[in-house]
Request: fold
Amino acid sequence: MMGESALIFLFLLGHALGDFYFQSSQAVKRKEQSPRYVLTHAIVYTTCMMFLLLIAYKFNMVLLGLIFLIFMTHLIVDMAKRKAEKTSGLPVIPQKTAKEYLFFIDQSLHIGLLVLFGFLFSAQLTPRLWFVELTPLEMGWSVHPVMVAAGFVFIIRPASLAIEKILGVCEITPTVDSGFANGGKIIGILERLLVYFLLLLGQFSTIGLVVAAKSLARFRDLDDRKCAEYYIIGTFLSLVVVGIVALITIASPTIAGP
Reply:
């Protein structure tokens, strides 16, 4: 595990925490109002990343340079996104759903750069003893705790927001729901968490029971065609997202090597 995969998954964990959990929706709106809020977010994001790196790797000048590089690249990408959001008539990108497209471009750039940094810097950093000696979890496959943690945080808030943006790009709006506020979103999160751990445990047949139980709870709502289509699309998107996260988690040790 001590190699590119360890650093990349630590980056992904830090990215999810810094960009989704320590950045509220109000902070996102403030970033649109003034560049100084973009700078504030970049500082919070880098602090979160720095904390994870310093507890997992021994401090040296390379680590310090890496932290500064993460700060600068995150700041530049966010500044570029802010400028693009204020630019009318972006080429190729439909104006009506420009924010949704920019969200995915922004996240792709952030994650792509972190993966690149993982490959460039992993050999120059020395992991701390406790990090080296972390015992892989036997969950149908041998899965490292850092990978499980990264997948766990990604399938909650980041996955919810990504699904919301995809539905926005497709111009699929939610139907009126008479249930609890955010009830559907919470159900989706719980569904993804359960499916995620079932996939890691190799309990594939049980996943069908989870989807069936959810469908049973929505049985009467499925008489409405729009509600049924929204429910089916949302459920499939949720399963696809958690499936991709689980696949990356399971396959990465094999790809990256020990």
